[in-house]
Each structure stands twice: as structure tokens, then as C-alpha cells.
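Hey, why these numbers?
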Amino acid sequence: EGPVTKGSFSPAFASHYVWRGQTLSEGFVAQPTVGITLGGFSANLWSNIDLDNAEEDDDGIVMNETDLTLNYTVPVGPVSLTGGFIHYDFDGSDTQEIYLTGSLAVLLNPSLSLYYDIDDGEGGFAVLAVSQAFPVGPISLTAGGAALRRRAKNGSASAAPSAFLRHCATSRRS
């Protein structure tokens, strides 16, 4: 039997859009995701729609970011390694990153991710994170936290902790 193909869709909602310790929205956001996986390869399209923004685009929707992620995941013993590419399309600009993530499928799902901007960004990031999902019927609640360390191309460094509680209704089809 060949590789399994899976599709996914998630219409996630959050009180704010927080990315790497920075709050990037004025309030409530919708963050729809659609993805496809074939064996270890995945493609994912994600957007942030700012629901509380007073500004409006021509279509009446403030979609201030859309990301395309392409990656490949391989299990190595108890660790899952994922290498990938992300194209960030921000409202008015864009950039691209490559990344590598190692994660353990145990309680709190610890992971370490290394990101490096290969376009307009300012260096790289390391993120040490934990998270745990709690399915409740068709809703999944995920709680977690992360520590971020950023190193700019000029050598300066910064760090930021963050915590989150995320909820979404998920539909998955095989």
C-alpha cells in the first residue's frame, strides 16, 4: 500500500494574533487553515483575518497575513524531525524562512524549532515549546507556552516568553 493522503481544515478563532511573543492584532481573529499531507510531505495554507480591525480592504475583510508552509517529517527513534520552508505574505510585504523542528510525542509534546529568514528578515529564531490538546467533542482546546530567542544578523539577541490557550473546531477527511 502506498503513502496515505490526508486533507485537513481548521476554522480557528483566537482573542488576539500573537506571533513569536508579539501581539499583531487589535482583538479577535479568525485563522483558517487548509492542508494536505502525502506520506511525510505536507503543504499548508494559513491566514490571519483581523475581526476587530476598523480598517477594511476592498472586499471588507482585513486579511493581514497568509502563509504557505511546505515541509517533510521523518521519525527518528522517539523524535519526529520536520524540515521546511515558509513563505509569509504580509499586508504590504513578504519574506521567507527555512526551519527545522524536533519534537517528542509525550505528555506536553516538547519541541525545539530553529528558524532562519532567507529573505528580508533579520536573522534567526529558536523556540522551545510545550503544548497539550484537550479534545471536547468537535472542539479542541490547546494550552501551551514557549520561550523564544532571537538572534539578528547584526549579532544582537533578545528573548521572550509566551503562553496561549487556543480553541478550534476541526474537520479532518482522509
